[in-house]
Design brief:
58% of the residues lie in helices and 10% in strands. It has helices at residues 2-24, 72-80, 87-92, 98-115, 120-156, 166-210, and strands at residues 36-40, 43-47, 52-57, 60-63, 161-164.
């Protein structure tokens, strides 16, 4: 049972790390992974952590260099074919750095969980809590930032449709998984300690049998006989 709890917490951390890693490596690094998709006119534009790709189709398309923060006005001109200035969104886009931070914290929590014993799980649980908070903040930024862009495209851009894409749901899933991993990893400390105590008790019982306790069908049955002292020995 204890081993199952420990493995469950480690598996949750591994799953969260993989989800956050894929979301972090979204467009322009991986074109098929993005937080927001804008489709229309036979082309598709994707927004990711480090930039965006515009007008992807069978003939190609273009992506921005990987960097922190979006120039929203430039993105609007390239993707939406219209002028849209929003300095608040441009500043908010720098908060997308929370994705690699959450990914790194979850990886550290995973390593500590794998290498830890007993009280090391407390530290792993603390790292998992930090990863959860970073992932939660990143998820809020995703829904706020890309929600504003999505509403702007759907309401004011003709022939274009914007929708949340796979990376958004990956971050959401990773946040939920990290929340539960905090408790599973913390509980691993208690179960590991209990399992160690049970092992020690079994070893102690086995040692008592080997030193004179129950030995089967031999002449000594029952408990170990007390050792005779020199003054109680019989004199001949």
């Amino acid at each position: 049972m204890a081993l199952g709890i420990i493995h469950c917490g480690t598996f949750l951390l591994f799953a969260a790390f993989v989800l956050l890693l894929i979301a972090t490596l979204s467009a322009p690094i991986i074109h098929t992974v993005s937080f927001l998709d804008v489709t229309g006119s036979g082309a598709r534009s994707t927004f990711g952590t480090f930039g965006y790709c515009a007008n992807l189709n069978a003939n190609g398309g273009g992506c921005t260099p990987a960097q922190f923060g979006y120039d929203i006005s430039h993105a609007a001109t390239t993707v939406f074919n219209r002028t849209w200035q929003n300095n608040s969104l441009t500043a908010l886009s720098k908060a997308l750095i929370l994705h690699p931070i959450a990914c790194g914290l979850s990886f550290l929590a995973l390593l500590v969980s794998i290498c830890s014993n007993r009280f090391g799980y407390v530290f792993a649980s603390f790292l998992a809590l930090l990863a959860f908070l970073a992932s939660l903040a990143a998820m809020i930024v995703d829904f706020v930032m890309f929600g504003i862009i999505r509403r702007e495209v759907n309401n004011n851009v003709t022939g274009r449709t914007a929708s949340y894409s796979n990376a958004t749901w990956m971050v959401l899933a990773a946040t939920v998984v990290l929340f539960f991993s905090v408790f599973f990893v913390l509980f691993s400390c208690c179960t590991s300690r209990r399992n160690r105590r049970d092992v020690d008790n079994r070893r102690g019982t086995a040692g008592a049998y080997e030193t004179g306790g129950y030995v089967g069908n031999g002449p000594q049955m029952g408990y170990a006989q007390p050792k005779k002292t020199w003054w109680s020995r019989r004199k001949y």
